[in-house]
Amino acid sequence: MPKFPNVLIVEDSAPQARLYEQYLKNETLFLHFATTGAQMQQLMTEHNIDLVLLDYKLPDMDGLAALKWMRQNGQECFVIVITGHSSVGIAVDMMREGAKDFIEKPVSASRLKTSVNNLLEQARLQTIVNDFQNTFERNRYHGFIGSSLSMQTVYRIIDSAAPSKATVFITGESGTGKEVCAEAIHAQGPRAKQAFVAINCGAIPKDLMESEIFGHVKGAFTGASSERKGAASQADGGSLFLDELCEMDLDLQTKLLRFIQTGSFKKVGSNKLEQVDVRFICATNRDPLADVASGRFREDLYYRLHVLPLQLPPLREREQDIIAIASDFLLNYSQEEGKQFKQFSAEVEHLFCHQYDWPGNVRQLQNIIRNIVVLHDAETVQLEHLPAPLNQISAQTSAMGQPVQTATASLATPEITEPNQITPLAQVEKQAIEQAINICDGNIPKAAALLDVSPSTIYRKKQTWEQTE
Which domains does the chain have, with CATH numbers? Predict the structure, then answer.
């Protein structure tokens, strides 16, 4: 919603419209006027209208038709119906159809201003709630899958960091998706249409690394039969991703620092200085400060690159995301391999989420699902389909004679013996939510999953309770 909300007065009587304008002249809002339903439709299409003062009787349509048009055309705004005494019943019907209030003629200044201000405040709060919901209900983001709070934090950091040219330093265990994160930063930013070039500093021999980054001229070393552009030149105008940066040789770290500071470099075997415009994104699965302390990583380079830190959570801390990620892999690989797999059994889901720590993170989960799909075929993944080391866990569980328990919260239901013991529904709902949160040790997304509701529903209700206490 804009700084000053847009209010549309739909009234075919010019004196009445001027009266409403006079009543609202000191309020912080923009007024728009329409005398017919057609003009109303045009103005609502052209402007982001927050509130409509709608006269029930218009020359070309009635209020019910106007409300129906708004709903069909996605005009999500608050409506106040202004009506005469003879049409109060119709106004009530309109409120059932979505109008938020109605005012009888003659309209008083205080009544109009109170209703307008109250609904505009509701609109403002609704916008905040919607933004909050949108933030906490993103279950996909570029190459990521997951709606957990830890991933929502990652998404928000990427949203904030992407428009900048500042270097992002990604840390996280192997397999957590550091390159996916780097690609998301690039795709979300203004350089999205330019090149994204990735270099794995741990996979390239150190004597070839300088050439990989800066390129070389013909004859620079044995085997350099032609001139070659390095990653720095290829990424000009775009983003250069340096993965496993802490594996880089110390001598090359010095040259990299100079390149980052000046944007200029020399190809191997050349004296010509070249200038490029590159956005740097770095990543490591090690503790960079520990490498600084041990002398394996230059301190000045660390502080030059460690501008916007971003920590990716391990899969074991994303319990609620595991099945969503696994299901996506399962369906994609089943289609690719021509298999029937569609889902996981409850026992497999429990093992995935509660009995295994996934030391290889998402990459390991991906490989496990690929193994299952290639070697087996069924509609449902069962325990017997699991490869090592997961099959060892399922075998141990079976040998111990312990039934696999699904993750459900046992919420106590109070026994009712007398009518006057009946608890109001709103209180029962609050007690159930609070009990679920306590069972889950304060983990609201987990409580939401057990209650089969969206996490944003619980956050919204808690906010309402806090405001009324």
Answer: 6-134 (3.40.50.2300), 144-220+227-313 (3.40.50.300), 317-399 (1.10.8.60), 419-468 (1.10.10)
